[in-house]
Amino acid sequence: MLWEDKAILFSILLVYSSSQVLASGESQEDGQCAELNNTRWQEYRQQRVEVQYLLLTRKNPDCAQRFDQDSVSKPTSYFNTSRPTKVIIHGFSTQAKRETVYTSSRRLTRSALGRRPSWVTDLAQALLGAQDANVVVVDWIYGASFAYNLVVENYKEVALQISVLVNQLQQRHGCRLESFHLIGVSLGAHVAGFVGTVFEGKIGRITGLDPAGPMFKGADTYDRLDPTDALFVDAIHTDSDHFGISIPVGHVDFFLNGGMDQTGCARSRFASIFLLFPVYGYVICDHMRALHVYMSALNGTCQLMGIPCASYEDFLKGSCVDCGVFKGRCPAIGLQEKSGIAMSPIPEQQKVFLLTTSSAPFCAHHILLTLEVSPLDKSAEVEVTLTNWSHGTEHRFRLKPEATVYRRVLAHPAALCQIDSIRLKNTGARLYRQGDVHVKSVCVSELPLHRHEAPLCVNDIDIRRGVPWSHDFVQVCGTS
Ligand SMILES: *[C@@H]1O[C@H](CO)[C@@H](O)[C@H](O)[C@H]1NC(C)=O
Ligand SMILES: *[C@@H]1O[C@H](CO)[C@@H](O)[C@H](O)[C@H]1NC(C)=O
Ligand SMILES: *[C@@H]1O[C@H](CO)[C@@H](O)[C@H](O)[C@H]1NC(C)=O
Ligand SMILES: *[C@@H]1O[C@H](CO)[C@@H](O)[C@H](O)[C@H]1NC(C)=O
């Protein structure tokens, strides 16, 4: 960062610090849970960004305490300065509906907007379930208008106010910068990134949940979340073709199902309209998937591990099969230190890919399917189905005369050792006129590949049109 920028940030921080101290003083009455729709926040002036904080801990997971730098020292505060602090920052598109009303005095009246986004409590509770921490929820209210570009203009002001709080907690209450973990959703990810910029990357961790894309993709790293913003930055991408950002912004960037369209989210050819009129329907499902997957990972029912690869296409083609880039440890979504990566320095802006199922807990096993056929003189199509008792996963290979080896990574709900049958079908009869297909081998293995594990293979199979072939495996899942 240029020293001029630093100087400007620092003076802003000072100005804010003094005004914050003057402005605070309103205290929360004991025995009351703080809500985002406090009367004080019912109305607000144009051009102002209002920020308030709520605190949730394991002592008060359901009943938020109003929080600011002064309330820390109060005996009634549940904030524990020796515990790590998680800061949740929501974004622009968290509200279900826009119900703003322009009144005659040209003020905006908050009606629905005063409602806390319903996921905030869920995320706070999931965090508390995973770690005994202080969870601070940042509630910021947009100034002026809800037009996306105007909100974007306000995000740095929000970041500066949060910086003041963090600065006070550090200076006056001895909280270590490394103990802060900022979790930003959508635009909130860039808010977190700017807080990180203010602290010159010394904040412990920033997690971006589908960091906002429009207007940020081409932005300077100073203006958006990037790996220099914290000691460790991770991001989950689920809607990079609409609300999310398509470029990597952290040390590790998880691209779920390619990072664009999520399984189980309805597609609409009118989807792009929702960008202009944010009536969140179809698109928001993809965008908010990052949050739901993150919460599910915190729940800890199963591991959501990613495989580093240059592109989603390469990943699906089976070109990336292990985590060599990370010295063999695949990064996982969640609170694990550095996403589980045990090397230093951590490579930056590494895209990692994973497939998910369509509902919680979202975990899928990555099964690499390799099909080798004898040379064909005409095109053909072979459908491969892997099943265990209840679940089947299928893939159709389009076979061409010029190639004999085909690879594909599939999401399967069960582990490789639970797959109990494989079925091959010559499906291209009408279209392709290819008669028999001779399969030299069909193999399945689970990613990440380990050198000592041989794939499960069946060799030398002739599959005729209309005569499906299947093979049952008798396998036992090991303990490792
Ligand atoms: C604030 O929210 C609570 C529940 O979330 C509701 O019971 C109460 O009526 C709301 N107050 C106002 C003034 O909207
Ligand atoms: C604060 O946290 C520390 C470390 O977890 C713990 O030992 C201590 O008892 C906590 N203090 C209070 C008042 O809960
Ligand atoms: C977390 O797990 C509990 C049960 O263990 C479940 O009720 C809850 O829905 C889960 N939450 C998420 C977000 O997966
Ligand atoms: C089939 O897969 C599911 C996982 O989705 C697993 O719970 C079940 O035990 C598997 N069945 C067998 C027979 O392995």
UniProtKB/TrEMBL annotation:
It comes from the Eukaryota. Ca(2+) binds at R224, D226, D229. The keyword Repeat does not apply. Keywords: Calcium, Disulfide bond, Glycoprotein, Hydrolase, Lipid degradation, Lipid metabolism, Metal-binding, Secreted, Signal. It is found in: Secreted. GO terms for molecular function: metal ion binding; phospholipase A1 activity. The keyword Secreted applies. It holds the Pfam family Lipase. PANTHER family: LIPASE, PHOSPHOLIPASE A1 MEMBER A. Belongs to the AB hydrolase superfamily. Lipase family. This is Phospholipase A1 member A. It comes from Xiphophorus maculatus (Southern platyfish). The lineage of its organism: Eukaryota, Metazoa, Chordata, Craniata, Vertebrata.
